[in-house]
Write a structure and sequence with these properties.
alpha+beta; Gln_synth_gly_rich_site; six-stranded mixed sheet; Creatine Kinase, Chain A, domain 2; GS_Type-3; single chain; six-stranded antiparallel sheet; 401 residues; 3 domains; GSIII_N; GS catalytic domain-containing protein; Ubiquitin-like (UB roll)
């Protein structure tokens, strides 16, 4: 949580532990793993890396395995061939991959993966993660400041997310015949399928034991679990051959890194089952496209969910904090809806609009009747705590409560 660990000797201990862990698992390489700008839908895995061996010779010329704090904290590479928006001068083409301590190191195959940021020679971000961490810093800094004014002192505030990954698994033999699918991720030519999702027969239907899609998802879950990624949910989605995998929620940076790896695993494992994994938003016209629902919340560093009314009130002893948090969120969405949409919905998402698919080109905070009534009452001076209203449904069946 603090940068002092880099210089107080802790980094050396971490590097030594990583080396011991790697060698015990027959891993002899490491890489700084980053997400270059503009890589979505273009490069395999949407990430970049250079895999380096831990083998070297000591001063006496004897072979040894070595992984130091310097190796852990930073890697240097050529930044000239990444998208940079003219932030990199020709005479300073170097780039640095810097360890992101908010996301855990993991091991895959013979390589240790070190989640990292990629910056230019002058410190300009060449990746997607550096701006994300800047936003995380701003959230923590201003969140602490706000809560302190409300009488609740915390050491930090962070975002938790849970990502739901939708995708298509299609026969690879058919995929190999479609150059448009291979090059763009979408079918550009041809007719609509003679049968789509009109009968609603695919959504949450039982995965067939005779289908390679089920065995593929099982392998994806097994490989992900070995990397410390618990994929909790799998099911059929609305469109034919469309599926969803969802992981347990967690901190923002960890969840994003894990989702990147899950998508890469899906693409690789699908090949082994004679399938192709399609991750583009709208591969086929006339049926649903694939989304990535982002279930978002904010919490303090001690684990208090700021959107959980009962937990927040039990921790702080006051009901004054929750409505202020809600007001800040509503104002942020109202004031910065254009930036939110820019960050959330890329142009490919426009193909998904309408029907029961993606939301329209509006970013809103639909609070529901209970929350709206509570906030209106609070504005008018009410001190009643927020309580989600429930009602008993009569299903006409005695054994169903």
């Amino acid at each position: 949580e603090t940068p002092e660990w880099v210089t107080d000797g802790s980094a050396d201990k971490v590097a030594a532990a990583v080396l011991d862990w790697a060698l015990r698992n027959n891993a002899t390489l490491y890489c700084h793993w980053f997400q270059p700008l503009g890589s979505s839908g273009l490069r395999h895995g949407m990430t970049g890396q250079v895999q380096n061996s831990m083998f070297e010779f000591d001063k006496q010329g004897l072979p040894k395995w070595s992984f130091t704090a310097s190796n852990l904290l930073k890697g240097e590479t050529d930044g000239s061939s990444f998208l940079h928006g003219k932030m990199r001068a020709t005479h300073s083409a170097g780039a640095y991959a810097v360890l992101d301590p908010t996301s855990p190191i993991f091991l895959r195959g013979d390589t240790v993966f070190i989640p990292s940021c990629l910056v230019s020679y002058n410190g300009d971000p060449l990746d997607e993660k550096t701006p994300l961490l800047r936003a995380a810093d701003a959230l923590s800094r201003e969140g602490k400041r706000l809560l302190k004014h409300l009488g609740y002192e915390v050491s930090g505030v962070h975002a938790n997310i849970g990502l739901e990954q939708e995708l298509f698994f299609v026969p690879r033999e058919a995929y190999n015949r479609r150059l448009d699918l291979q090059m763009t991720g979408r079918t550009v030519l041809g007719r609509d399928a003679p049968r789509g999702q009109e009968l609603c027969d695919h959504y949450m239907a039982p995965p067939s034991l005779s289908s390679p899609a089920l065995s593929c998802m099982q392998d994806v879950q097994n490989q992900a679990f070995k990397l410390g990624i618990p994929l909790r949910t799998r099911h059929r989605e609305v469109a034919p051959n469309q599926y969803e995998l969802a992981s347990l929620y967690g901190t923002m940076t960890t969840q994003i890194d894990q989702n990147l790896m899950v998508m890469q695993i899906c693409e690789e494992v699908a090949v082994q089952h004679g399938l192709a994994a399609l991750l583009q938003e709208k591969p086929f016209q006339g049926v649903n496209g694939s989304g990535k629902h982002n279930n978002w919340s904010i919490a303090t560093s001690d684990g208090t969910n700021l959107l959980n009314v009962k937990q927040l009130q039990a921790t702080t002893g006051t009901g004054e904090i929750f409505p202020v948090i809600m007001a800040a969120i509503v104002k942020a969405v109202f004031q910065h809806g254009d930036l939110l949409r820019l960050a959330i919905a890329c142009p490919g998402n426009d193909f998904r609009l309408g029907a029961c698919e993606a939301p329209p080109a509006l970013v809103t905070t639909h609070l529901g009747d209970d929350m709206t009534s509570f906030l209106e009452g609070y504005i008018n001076g009410s001190s009643e705590p927020y309580t989600a209203q429930t009602k008993q449904l009569d299903l006409g069946v005695s054994v169903l409560a």
